[in-house]
Fold this sequence. Notes:
Layout: E1 2-4, E2 29-31, H1 38-41, E3 53-57, H2 70-74, H3 80-104, E4 112-113, H4 117-122, E5 153-156, E6 167-177, E7 181-191, E8 194-195, E9 199-206, E10 211-218, E11 225-233, E12 244-253
Parallel strand pairs: 1-2, 2-3, 3-5
Antiparallel strand pairs: 4-5, 6-10, 6-12, 7-8, 7-9, 7-11
Amino acid sequence: LSGLDPAQPYFQGTPIEVRLDKSDADFVDVIHTDTAPTIPYLGFGIRPAIGHIDFYPNGGVEMPGCDKNAVSQIVDLDGMWEGTRDFVACNHLRSYKYYSDSIIYPDGFLGYPCSSYDLFQSGSCFPCPEQGCPNMGHYADKFKDKIESDVLKLYLNTAEARDFPLWRYKVTVTLSGRSKVRGYVNVALYGSGGNTRQHQITKGTLKPDNTYTAYIDAELNVGEITKVKFLWNNNWINPTFPKLGAATITVEVGENR
Length: 257
């Protein structure tokens, strides 16, 4: 039984006979997308974990793409009716859009076990544990026999619009060069499944021999990594033409460690 952002008003804090609960089925998975308090933030979705596994995409409060201005939201690609609905309850309705996308992406929407979204964002809950990460949505029940705790909260990030799934990688870059400069470092991943756009690893002061780490949510599963593209740029014209390289780049795949 899959709960798509189960309702908060009149249900949160009520007995289990009244609301969705893990006792309602052999396996209950829940997607939480609109858990801000109803008053004053008009959150429609229940906040506590109530299933066997509970997914909190993007932290479960504010979904990417839902902060578009009213005009662009209402004149939506999906038509006036869906655009108007999305403007009124965009976060709440993301749950069924994630679910429908999950049918097409059996390897997508990996949920990382974590005690909070902030810890997930900082990389503290990366990579997936040995038993793996469950997939949010249609294929969540593949994880049914691997659950080891009463409460399992899972976090992940999604894209702003379809296609929604993102794949998480840890990228570590050690720089080489002669002098420190200011600027930014970008990395793109190439693999058997395709290549990503450039993702920023760090910006600011770049020091040779220093190591910089970032967790990137890539727009596709690159599969077996075959190549990494490294690019750095300084933010203004430097007459000394500094040179900077990458001594090493390490990529860790969240899914299979």
